[in-house]
Amino acid sequence: MPLPNHHPLQRPLGCRYQFPDPMVADPDGEGLIALGGDLAADTLVCAYRQGIFPWFNEGEPIAWWSPDPRCIIYPSDFCASKTLKRRIKNAGWTFSLNLAFAEVIAACADTRTYAQASASATWISPAMIEAYTALHAEQVAYSVEIWDNDELIGGLYGLKLGQAFFGESMFHRVTDASKAAFFVLMQLCAHSQFAWVDCQLPNPHLLRLGASILPRVEFLDKLAQQLSLPSIDWSSICGQKLPLNQLLNEDFMTYYLPPSAQI
């Protein structure tokens, strides 16, 4: 199905800035590629397509990064523990996609604030929230939500371009709820034939979940390949609460994301 003309993957990109090649701008692999610019939707899409993302504190210039090495996770390598699987099976939770994007990104910002109790700023600033909410309106940014009845207890958000997903942040209000959201994302990406999910920077938690570390040059090569592939239309699964434990059934995703969902 062709994308509508207003979609950023269909229309010519209107980015006013030319991002430098990360390998040229940062030969020492420190990660910082550029300063300045804006957070317009087309600017962000241009950046992500080149393996670059914004990361800066409120009140600072916009900083654009492409770290070396890069952290990714292959859906096939995701390690769901027995404890998590039991939780998913028995908790009675539901999951959704794009049902509460604004609430998810706001909760992620709150989580960062609490984690930096002694700091004066969080990198998920109001400007960042506004920018990614605009990408959500353009069907580029997606959220995964975990619910206990009507209570939002965990979730994550990120960007989908081609057959690449760029994870941004996650939160939990109940133990294992963010892991459950990540489990949902892994199932979505595996069924959508996404080779990997970009996790940006490695940390012990991601590595325990099965993440890998790649040299930047290898990541950029893989990214170009994934961006050239047709994406999967997730609209059939968006905006509804579904039983989380049904994801333990291998045929569940096939019903919502048939092979004809390629766009």
From TrEMBL:
Q: Where is the signal peptide?
A: none
Cellular component terms per the entry's GO annotation: cytoplasm
An example GO biological process term is: protein catabolic process
* Reactions this protein catalyses: N-terminal L-lysyl-[protein] + L-leucyl-tRNA(Leu) = N-terminal L-leucyl-L-lysyl-[protein] + tRNA(Leu) + H(+); N-terminal L-arginyl-[protein] + L-leucyl-tRNA(Leu) = N-terminal L-leucyl-L-arginyl-[protein] + tRNA(Leu) + H(+); L-phenylalanyl-tRNA(Phe) + an N-terminal L-alpha-aminoacyl-[protein] = an N-terminal L-phenylalanyl-L-alpha-aminoacyl-[protein] + tRNA(Phe)
Which keywords, in A-to-Z order, does the entry hold?
Acyltransferase, Cytoplasm, Transferase
Compartment(s) where it occurs, according to its Swiss-Prot or TrEMBL record: Cytoplasm
Q: What GO MF annotations does this protein's record show?
A: leucyl-tRNA--protein transferase activity
EC number annotated for this UniProt entry: 2.3.2.6
Entry keyword annotation includes Transferase: yes
Name the SUPFAM superfamilies on file: Acyl-CoA N-acyltransferases (Nat)
Functional description taken from the UniProt entry = Functions in the N-end rule pathway of protein degradation where it conjugates Leu, Phe and, less efficiently, Met from aminoacyl-tRNAs to the N-termini of proteins containing an N-terminal arginine or lysine.
The record's comment on protein family reads:
Belongs to the L/F-transferase family.
Q: Which NCBIfam families match?
A: aat
* Stated name of the protein: Leucyl/phenylalanyl-tRNA--protein transferase
